[in-house]
Amino acid sequence: MTRTSPPTIALLGGDGIGPEVVDATAEVLAALLPEATFVRPLHGQAAIEATGDALPEAARDACRAADAVLFGATAGPSHPVLRFLRWGLDTYANLRPARTLPGLPSPLASDAPIDLLVVRENLEGEYPGREGEIAEFRERWPGFRDNIGRELPEQGLFTLRLTTEEGSRRVAHAAARQAATRRGHVTVVTKSNILRRTDGLFRRVAEEELDAAGIEHRHLFVDDACRRLVAEPTSFDVLLAPNLFGDILSDVAAELTGGMGMAPSGCLGDRHAYFESVHGAAPDIAGRGIANPLATVLSACMMLDHLGWADPATALHAAVERLLTDRRTVTPDLGGSATTGEVARALIDLLD
């Protein structure tokens, strides 16, 4: 798909260094796509102070109306924002690419280029946070026994792990679509030998969807997948996993290709999408002007590609690679002395 109408992008900086890296990325995007419209909904701590709500309804409406949302990071005040971007916008497929970039260190001895994509189910599993006291669980479900027939202990805590056929099917369909644009292979990752019902459902539905789409696939248990990801990362194309396992796998993959500070991501639903760097809010360096914006810039590349602006996305990614190859304008985390703003301006110069 190629877009002709200019996009509207909602900018949510969040907490810590989030506003700095989002502002820098927006500066680059404005130079790359001057016809784009940027909106800045009130959110986070400022919104709490003004309205008592981290994301007022007007801000939610702005996010819904935008073609995509670019989010920074959260360290507390913006947690409700992130919850809305995921569950409120129903962005069920979390795409986390890991790709070798020039000049970035890797702990691997091999210099073979890595290019893989983790597709993580984004809304189910353990992450909705359905937790409580075991006494409460025993009261609601008397006589419940575990997989080997034991009764639950009287004290302790529990977490509910949610897996539905609908959720598994639609994220598997998303993985199939991604694989069809890449090398056409998906590795389904579960722990279905232990989590026989929940992961068993995820595996069965995923394999059905991949078969129906004509996508070649295999299955690995998550511990074996982690081992192979370190031992033979070039053997992977697309990895499809439930929420928790996908989070872990994508962090491992990021560390193999430059670290968490360079890892982008995009979360897609049927109607909405938002994009964010994988790194945290880094409050220790917030406000110092030295935050590395490149993970957010690479997330913006994913956003442009998703919106149908493939040529600007390619141009921006190429500018990032030239910047990393040159090494003269990089932030301290990459061994340089450039500021966040200087990196943005260097990227604009490279685009020109």
> What shape does the CA trace take?
globular
CATH architecture of the largest domain: 3-Layer(aba) Sandwich
Helical amount: 40-55%
CATH topology of the largest domain: Isopropylmalate Dehydrogenase
Helix/strand/pairing category: alpha/beta
- The average pLDDT is 94
Low-confidence stretches: none
> In CATH's first tier, which class of the largest domain applies?
Alpha Beta
CATH homology superfamily of the largest domain: Isopropylmalate Dehydrogenase
* Secondary-structure element string: EHEHHEHEEEHEHEHEHEHEEHHH
Q: Tell me the count of domains.
A: 3
Number of DSSP strand runs: 12
Enumerate the strands of the largest sheet in spatial order, edge to edge or round the barrel. Answer: 2-1-3-12-11-4-5-10-8-9
Output the number of helix runs: 12
Largest sheet, strands/sense/barrel? 10 strands, mixed
| Strand proportion | 15-25%
Distance between the termini: 25 Å
Radius of gyration: 21 Å
